Amino acid sequence: MKIGVSSYSFAGYIKKSKCDYFHICDKVKEYGFDGIEFVDLDFPGFNITDNPLKCAENIRAYCERINLPIFAYTVGADFTKEGADAQTEHLYKCVDIAKVLGAPILRHDICRSLPDKYLYSYRNAIDDFAPYIRKVADYAENLGIKTCTENHGFVFQSPDRVEQLIQAVGHKNFGWLCDMGNFLCTDNDPSDAFRIAAPYAFHVHAKDFLFKKGNTLRPDGFFETASGNYLRGTVIGHGIVPIENCISILKKQNYNGVISIEFEGFEDTEFALKSGLSYLKKFI
């Protein structure tokens, strides 16, 4: 397994320093990561208004110059907004960007919430969305890129729902970006959830959270889980996510891909990423 880092981990650093992503690439290389994962190229640090493909070309050229592999390209998506056909066309363009980047994996969301007609059955949403997700997976396969979705957002975050979605899509080129921490957002035990998720893993996020029971006053900086508990992002190894156990489960599944740190805590970025990398190396 290789250890990467998501450009999202630098969100606070970018906001504070006003740096661009080329500077971030230098930092990733300096810290000793095996490669980088990029979020949407309209994330702060880029200006792709005119030509996103040219931007992707420039990023790839820079990463090749400093010998920094690009492991994945992760993008937002919502099949409930502006029609599923339009969202599918948008994702085709994202696949094209991933191809120019040289990223072998494209992760896309499914939706953030469900319209009223889906309130009582996410299964109806799976039935409606699966054919479009399959089209994207098929398009990407022709370009040599795997597609996946993440246990992310309250609709498709619990392990049973994501598994049902992947099985409904039924395409060998569509899998799971398994996020170790996000299962806590729906109050699932990460170890139990990972046993479900690992066989479908195309890519993995290492993430950690601090936890507070919901019967207390919510502290500043924490957000609420599906069952009313509280979480706050933190440095890998500092929280309650069983990182070592999740990696052990991956090894039993013979996973040999990338584990990418996605840090979203309040701690200093450089300390958090160096510490997280050192922690992961103990188990990989």
Q: Which structural class matches the secondary elements?
A: alpha/beta
Provide the succession of SSEs.
EHHEHEHEHEHEHEEEEHEH
CATH architecture call: Alpha-Beta Barrel
CATH superfamily: Divalent-metal-dependent TIM barrel enzymes
Total strand segments: 11
CATH topology: TIM Barrel
Describe, in plain words, how this protein is organized in 3D.
There is one protein chain. The chain is α/β, with parallel strands linked by helices. It has one domain: Alpha-Beta Barrel (TIM Barrel), CATH 3.20.20. Helices cover 39% and strands 18% of the residues. The protein has 9 helices and 11 strands. The strands form 2 sheets. An 8-stranded parallel barrel has the order 1-2-3-4-5-6-7-11, surrounded by 5 helices.
List the helices and strands and how they pair.
Layout: E1 2-6, H1 11-17, H2 21-31, E2 35-38, H3 52-65, E3 70-75, H4 84-101, E4 105-108, H5 122-141, E5 146-150, H6 159-169, E6 174-179, H7 190-197, E7 201-206, E8 208-212, E9 223-224, E10 230-234, H8 243-252, E11 258-261, H9 269-281
Helix pairs in contact: 3-4, 4-5, 5-6, 6-7, 7-8
Notable traits:
3-stranded antiparallel β-sheet; 9 helices; single chain; 11 strands; alpha/beta; globular; 8-stranded parallel β-barrel; 284 residues; 39% helix; TIM Barrel
In short, what is this structure?
This protein is α/β, with parallel strands linked by helices and 284 residues long.
